[in-house]
Amino acid sequence: xxxxxxxxxxxxxxxxxxxxxxxxxxxxxxxxxxxxxxxxxxxxxxxxxxxxxxxxxxxxxxxxxxxxxxxxxxxxxxxxxxxxxxxxxxxxxxxxxxxxxxxxxxxxxxxxxxxxxxxxxxxxxxxxxxxxxxxxxxxxxxxxxxxxxxxxxxxxxxxxx
Length: 161
Known about the structure:
Layout: H1 3-10, H2 21-37, H3 42-49, H4 53-66, H5 70-81, H6 84-95, H7 122-136, H8 152-160
Helix pairs in contact: 2-4, 2-5, 3-4, 5-6
């Protein structure tokens, strides 16, 4: 099935940027058919869909999660049989369904916040020493000077403090 046939049967342009579930499912089905059955490369398919290849890699990765969805199965039947009525029925169900939040497998893991009782890394100690030295300095008034405007002589004064 070509992009033109999909546009005629389902009234969907897969080249257009759209993140609605029914369009994602249809784009995923088209991509999987082109990649697995016709053995086309991801770069060629991405060029045809006017997308970047990372989006298609992501689509390939999420296929196993999509296949668990009942609406994906409906759209897959409609795609295989070229049935626009079944596709419209699946779209109606998707539009009226509230999807659960994204599984934790897709959420990026955040670093733990820094706790004050833990030992500070050595990099931070360097800045703390500079700040303490600048506070002690009364004669050279380096505290008011921005770090971008520091000269070599200012750094020498800092080392001597």
